[in-house]
Specification:
heterodimer; A: alpha+beta; Aminopeptidase; 4 helices; 30% strand; globular; B: mainly alpha; 4 strands; N-alpha-acetyltransferase 20 (chain A); NatB_acetyltransferase_subunit (chain A); cytoplasm (chain A); transferase (chain A); protein N-terminal-methionine acetyltransferase activity (chain A)
């Protein structure tokens, strides 16, 4: 049982059981506030009946309508270890797609480490395909490439937005 | 970063300024200053260059020079965009937001039609939270530029006046109705344009509790504006109906929502709540409606228990089919709603409870479906009280029996798959929660712990493919073993269990490197063992940063000083305070963003957030600890006098700046997992107790700091030196009065604290750490410090008297003796061997160290105060010498105080030597102790592989302990040495 509700500042005080997971980044407060101030409808949290935070999703919409790049973007989606394998991530992704549909986006996109097979498989199952590879998108030791994965929404009837690019691109080519 | 906007600037100027901007951006502030000077030489009138210079100066710490430059520019009333922007950045970084207001107010006077200036002024007012002026500016803007957003900025400003008004009546009778009227005017004139405007209307109606009206808005034309949120209208309407107790409509609304999202727990709860509301009121649909074909079946409210159960049953079946078809997880929400219903009915002692079916069966079938998910225990936990205590044992047994595990050679049944591991763990957790483990004897607990450790090792074979970042499947076996050992440790008081737990957890981390539960426990246990050395690595390993410093900092911040790791303390305190300072600024900037994007409902939320962070007890504690630490470790070293430090710290000892009633407790005290029975968990009551004790300790520390400051100011009463001293410009109380007041307050507070019945309350290991209060009181640290303050006051009094009274001098002598006696006693008490022999066994005394740290601190402050006394007595001595020289021949009788002071200094010197020895005695390296070989923790070193790795881990533990104690000893000796050196200079 999950309550999906908008993420609030208060949640920053109690999201530790999610964020202590090594793959979940804790950003500066400003980063969360920016999303809350600008795209609150895209920032949702899943709460268990006991009041624990199970996971959350952050996203935004951006791009240009005339160029047909107006899209929803998944900035972060994360689930605490003990609540995995319950389909929560899928549920939150669906939610984000629904919001993006409401805002008449053409597609939804996200970036994922090429090594993160579990995530890539999950996104594929949810209908996302690799649109392009971004070279050394993640800095670290060593730097790592990202897949830019996309899923077309109903506004993009011909699914033009997800036709894969042949060649990989550099981070500076990505907005 | 310097923002450059200026499209109004001509290209030439831009080219001239570019190098300055570039250097600012790249952090070359000194070069930026030079560049600015160069430009200014040729173009004196270029104001922007001046401001950029000011910015560069500010960033290299020349605040005063920077500020005065900005003021030169302010006088010229600048209106060009680059200058305005640069000034804004400058003032923001100086934290002088009121200057930005002035800047744009002036700019607007010469350009009243400039829209951007208006906006900037409005935002500047947001920064300082001047809601009233915000409202005026917004109104003004809307007049000149009739755009909707500006109008609604005004509405929001009105709401904020209501929300921050201390007068509830004023808020409800004036500001909110005004805001409502403002919006309704726009509605009437059909000028509503955006979703944000409807949202703000609903927000106002919510604050005014006008739910009826809000529903009309949602149902009407305005409701159509709500597009961005998913299901905005139905969700909000359902909430409002529930709030108003319109159960029939609420029930249909939630039923509809639940049909769409059957896993949503909030909907489940509200559906049940509204249905029970109908049942209790014997509600039935009005006759006319019954054959109303317009309403679909799903929309009709459920008003009998049978209808409710049917609905749950139907929905569950539909979902089960869906789940089976798509092979995804069953929705747990709808299934758990039966438990919730049971819980409510039981609470109400309703006879309907029988209709739901046998309780145990319900649990069993849920366990059947979800037992192999790690969340199963968490789902069921709150409903476990539904099972009668007499059924506990057999229920657990029946679950175990149903779990076809494999019998190992050692007679233990092991899980055969990952799913079985999870099921087994779930049963174990339920059993612990029931309190069944508490009923075991100590030996049985130890045996169970051993068994669990074997399970955790066996489980590793399933996790070979797991990544470094994954948790091992059997981690919780190990955690529970440690919890059991904690139980035994606490019951017997034997530390050998502590060492064993440390070894187990260190060993556990070698196979499950990312398990934060193990790390958190290790942190706590090492700290209890007196070793802070391993903590920074563990803490960094948890990657705790940003807001987590506020919520999780408590796990280490108290120990880092109490265990004498002063270098780490300094680093930790600095990063923590950096977070708190920057956060304040950030939150304000995003409030501005919220105005820009019309996300008005976030503004009150941001305000609350800002307040919570600003009043965080952790922030206040770290601030005072950092200052005390600085005085202890740095004052009176290498010519840096106590006076310099106190002046730099800008302490105003006469006033208590802490708003005690507004202090917020942001500690995340649920972060450590526990499956203990309810009555043993960290409760809300415990939280209150813990916060109160933290406040008490904070008060002690603040009073100490303030009295140290007040004492320091005593030496600056002569007119020539008062320039920098706060207060005493004739209006405030004199420094000695302040010191006397603080001494009295500290005295009273310590007496109160000593009598606090909660002082010795035992909190669960998974709760917050204890404060240092108990050790502080036991070591008489407060008493000694108070005596030193009293001596300080007497010495000051003596120094102001014309003919120094003999009585006062002998009082001082007596106080000096008291200080020495009390200190001697405390040192004797805490000077113990690190390893003691007891009944043939060697025991490690982990309690000595925190006691010694407090004594070192106390003695350090005593010495600093002695320095102040010295400064007061020195002129007296010089005067006496002068006098005796004048009266050649006739020897003047020396004042006894000089001899008393000398004796006192000698005694303190001896105390320091004694304390130094005691500190050396806790350094295992100095004592050539190899802790690992002392058999402190009865590990059975057999040839077995697993146990060998455990023995290795225990050895690691001892090595870390040795290193940490050595480090502490070194740091303490450093402090003592520096203070002793200073003491040696205090000759009259």
């Amino acid at each position: 049982m999950t309550t999906v509700r908008p993420f609030t500042c208060e949640d920053l005080f109690k999201f530790n059981n999610v964020n202590l997971d090594p793959l979940t980044e804790t950003y500066g407060v400003a980063f969360y506030l920016q999303y809350l101030a600008h795209w609150p409808e895209y920032f949702q949290v899943c709460e268990s009946a006991s009041g624990k935070i199970m996971g959350y999703i952050m996203g935004k919409s951006e791009g240009s309508i005339p160029q047909e790049t107006w899209h929803g973007h998944v900035t972060a989606v994360t689930v605490a270890p003990e609540y995995r394998r319950l389909g929560l991530a899928a549920k939150m992704m669906n939610f984000l797609e629904e919001v993006s549909e409401k805002q008449s986006c053409f597609f939804v996109d996200l970036f994922v480490r090429v090594s993160n097979e579990v995530a890539v498989t999950m996104y594929k199952r949810l209908g996302y395909t690799v649109y392009r590879r971004v070279i050394e998108y993640y800095s670290g030791d060593p730097d790592e490439d990202a897949f830019d994965m996309r899923k077309a929404l109903s506004r993009d009837k011909d699914k033009k937005s997800v036709v894969p690019l042949k060649d990989p691109v550099y981070p500076e080519d990505v907005e | 970063m310097a923002n450059r906007g200026g499209h109004h600037v001509d290209a030439v100027t831009e080219r001239r300024l570019k190098p300055i901007y570039d250097n600012l951006d790249n952090g070359n502030y000194k070069t930026a200053v030079q560049m600015a000077d160069k430009v200014l030489k040729k173009h004196k009138e270029l104001q922007c260059a001046k401001v950029l210079k000011a910015l560069a100066l500010l960033r290299i710490g020349k605040r005063r020079e920077s500020f005065s430059l900005t003021q030169d520019v302010m006088v010229t009333k600048p209106v060009d965009e680059p200058t305005l922007q640069a000034l804004t950045i400058c003032f923001r970084e100086m934290q002088k937001p009121e200057q930005i207001i002035e800047l744009y107010t002036t700019a607007l006077k010469s350009n009243p039609k400039n829209e951007e200036f208006h906006t900037h002024l409005f935002m500047a007012l947001v920064r300082v939270g001047d809601y009233k002026r915000q409202q005026q500016v917004a109104k003004e803007m809307y007049k000149v530029f009739p755009k909707n957003p500006y109008y609604f900025w005004g509405v929001m400003s009105t709401i904020l006046q209501a929300l921050t008004s201390t007068d509830e009546k004023l808020a409800q009778m004036m500001y909110l109705p005004l805001a409502e009227k403002m919006v309704e005017r726009m509605v009437k004139e059909k000028r509503i344009e955006a979703e944000a405007e409807v949202n703000i209307y609903l927000m106002i109606l919510g604050y005014l509790n006008k739910h009826e009206k809000a529903i009309e808005v949602l149902d009407g034309e305005l409701g159509k504006f709500l597009k961005v949120e998913v299901d905005a209208c139905p969700i909000r309407k359902a909430e409002l109906l529930c709030k108003m107790g319109r159960w029939a409509e609420a029930n249909s609304a939630y039923k509809a929502l639940l049909t769409k999202r059957p896993d949503n727990w909030l909907y489940c709860q509200q559906y049940l709540k509204s249905a029970l509301g109908l049942i209790e009121n014997n509600w039935s649909p009005p006759a006319a409606d019954e054959n109303d074909g317009e309403n679909e079946k799903t929309c009709q409210p459920d008003y009998t228990m049978d209808m409710v159960l049917d609905f749950i049953q139907e929905t569950a079946e539909v979902e089960e089919k869906k789940a089976a078809a798509a092979s995804h997880a069953h929705p747990r929400g709808i299934l758990l709603s039966r438990f919730e219903l049971l819980r409510i009915l039981k609470e109400k002692e309703s006879p309907d409870i029988g209709k739901i079916g046998p309780v145990l069966e319900l649990f069993r079938s849920y366990f059947e479906l979800f037992g192999d998910r790690p969340c199963c225990y968490d789902d069921l936990c709150q409903f476990l009280p539904l099972i009668a205590p007499e059924d506990h044992q057999c229920f657990v047994q029946s679950l175990l029996d149903g779990l076809d595990m494999e019998l190992g050679e050692d007679g233990i049944k092991y899980a055969k798959s990952i799913k079985q591991i999870y099921r087994h763990l779930c049963i174990l957790k339920i059993s612990r929660r029931f309190g069944l483990q508490d009923k075991l004897s100590q030996d049985e607990k130890l045996a169970l712990a051993d068994e669990l450790i074997k399970h955790s090792e066996a489980a590793l074979s399933y996790g070979k493919e797991l990544l470094f970042t994954d948790l091992q499947y059997g981690d919780e076996y190990l955690l529970m073993a440690v919890h059991l050992l904690t139980d035994v440790w606490e019951a017997t008081g034997e530390d050998k269990y502590l060492w064993r737990m440390l070894g187990l957890l260190e060993n556990g981390l070698t196979s499950s490197a990312s398990c934060h539960h193990m790390k958190l426990l290790l942190i706590r246990l090492y700290c209890l063992a007196g070793a802070f050395g391993p903590i920074p690595d563990l803490y960094d390993g948890l990657d705790i940063k940003h807001v987590q410093q506020d919520t999780l900092g408590y796990t280490v911040s108290g120990y880092v000083t109490s265990l004498g790791h002063f270098t780490s303390a300094n680093a930790l305190f600095n990063t923590t305070l950096k977070f708190f300072t920057s956060n304040n600024k950030d939150t304000t900037e995003y409030m501005i963003t919220a105005y820009k994007f019309g996300t008005f409902h976030k503004i009150p939320e941001f305000l609350t957030f800002q307040r919570r962070i600003r009043n965080s007890i952790h922030c206040i504690q770290v601030t005072v600890e950092k200052l005390l630490l600085e005085l202890l470790t740095e004052a009176e070293i290498a010519g840096n006098t106590l006076q310099d430090f106190i002046l730099d710290m800008d302490i105003h000892p006469e006033k208590d700046n802490t708003k005690w009633d507004e202090i917020c407790d942001n500690r995340d005290l649920d972060v450590m997992v526990s499956w203990a029975p309810e009555h043993r968990l960290f409760s809300a009551e415990d939280r209150k107790v813990s916060l109160q004790l933290e406040k008490s300790w904070l008060k002690v520390r603040q009073l100490m700091l303030r009295s140290l400051a007040a004492a320091t100011y005593l030496t600056q009463n002569s007119p020539s030196t008062t320039t920098n001293t706060p207060t005493n410009n004739g209006d405030g109380p004199s420094h000695e009065k302040v010191l006397a007041m603080l001494t009295e307050q500290l005295d009273r507070h310590l007496t109160e604290v000593a009598e606090d019945p909660t002082l010795h309350k035992k909190l669960p290991l998974q709760g917050p750490p204890c404060t240092r209060l108990v050790n502080y009181l036991k070591g008489n640290c407060g008493k000694v410090f108070l005596l030193a303050l009293k001596a300080m006051l007497s010495v000051h009094e003596l120094s102001t008297q014309q003919d120094q009274s003999a009585d006062l001098q002998s009082t001082i002598e007596q106080t000096f003796t008291n200080i020495t006696d009390k200190c001697t006693e405390s040192i004797r008490r805490s000077r113990r061997c690190l390893i003691k022999e007891e009944g043939g066994a060697r025991l490690f005394d982990r309690h000595t160290l925190p006691e010694l740290v407090l004594l070192v601190e106390t003695l350090g402050f005593i010495i600093l105060l002695a320095g102040v006394k010295h400064r007061l007595l020195k002129p007296m001595k010089l005067a006496a010498i002068r006098k005796s020289r004048k009266k050649k021949g006739g020897a003047t009788p020396k004042l006894p105080i000089f001899q008393h002071f000398k004796d006192y200094i000698d005694n303190v010197q001896q105390l320091s030597d004694g304390l130094s020895m005691a500190v050396q005695d806790i350094d295992p390296t100095m004592l050539s102790l190899d802790l690992g070989k002392l058999n402190l923790s009865e590990n059975s070193v057999e040839a077995n592989d697993e146990e060998a790795s455990l023995a290795r881990a225990e050895n690691t533990v001892w090595k870390r302990m040795e290193k940490s104690y050595h480090e502490t000893s070194k740091e303490l000796l450093d402090v003592l040495k520096n203070k002793k050196d200073f003491l040696a200079t205090l000759k009259l």
